[in-house]
Write a structure and sequence with these properties.
The structure is a single chain. With about 240 residues, this protein is of the alpha+beta class. Helix content is about 60%, strand content about 10%. A 4-stranded antiparallel beta sheet has the order 2-3-1-4, sandwiched between helices.
């Protein structure tokens, strides 16, 4: 039986299952649920994740959040937080912070790629320009690039680096005004004009990706999706590409 489990059972046996008013007042702000979970010995990781997200929304930095977790453990169990609880809080805080950055920025700060929200904006601009132009403009397409690394091991920073490498190849081929962005954690989109050279450019992109793919791994899949002429249909296509 691990230290955390032993301490949790000891706490449950020696205390009531509810925080006393005095102990509740001593806990750091927003950590009451964590304290209650420690007393009951259940739901602690969920409580840590919830408080991590809440503190990130409030603008509390990670160092202060971890200090609050440590203080809560010390007050309730007279012990330091275990790794799993620290990880749950930290990951939730990081995910919430990155989500906020994605909303206020046109780029994912980890990969430098345009966010899906920005791709949607660019698609809407392209369609609006086509409607308002006195002469027909070139149609646009979405070049889709699927990262094919093993989802069981290719996660976190490793996955972000893999996506960044794919984006580098895409930029070599689409080096003009094209928008290169993310449709999800394992999929890239390139908003490009339909032209006579498009097929050749996509073929070159496939070759570049294949040449850089480690031996034994499948290269990323690349294909072309036609862009529907209306905002509603284009939005539905982007939603579908983001889901799969």
């Amino acid at each position: 039986m691990g230290l955390f489990t032993t301490l949790s059972h000891r706490a449950s046996a020696g205390r009531s299952q509810e925080l006393s008013e005095r102990l509740r007042e001593q806990l750091p702000a927003r950590f009451e649920a964590v304290g209650e979970a420690l007393l009951t010995g259940s739901g602690i990781h969920v409580a840590c994740a919830v408080v991590g997200r809440d503190l990130a929304r409030d603008g509390v930095d990670l160092s202060e959040a971890l200090h609050g977790l440590r203080s809560t453990f010390a007050l309730v169990l007279h012990a330091d937080p275990d790794f799993a609880c620290t990880e749950a809080l930290s990951v939730a805080w990081s995910d919430e912070t990155l989500g906020f950055l994605h909303q206020v920025s046109c780029e994912n700060p980890l990969t430098g790629l345009a966010t899906l929200a920005h791709v949607r904006t660019r698609v809407a601009e392209v369609l609006r320009a086509a409607e308002e132009a006195p002469e027909p403009l070139a149609d646009h397409v979405l070049v889709v690039i699927d990262h094919t690394g093993d989802p069981r091991t290719d996660v976190g920073v490793s996955r972000a680096l893999g996506m960044a490498r794919l984006a580098d190849r895409a930029r070599l081929v689409f080096a003009g005004s094209e928008t290169i962005g993310e449709a999800g954690p394992r999929r890239l989109l390139v908003l490009a004009e339909r032209s006579e050279t498009l097929g050749n450019r996509v073929a070159v992109l496939r070759d570049l990706i294949a040449a850089a793919t480690p031996y034994g791994e499948a290269p990323a899949r690349v294909w072309i999706e036609g862009l529907p002429p209306t905002n509603a249909a284009s939005a539905a296509l982007l939603d579908e590409l983001a889901r799969n």
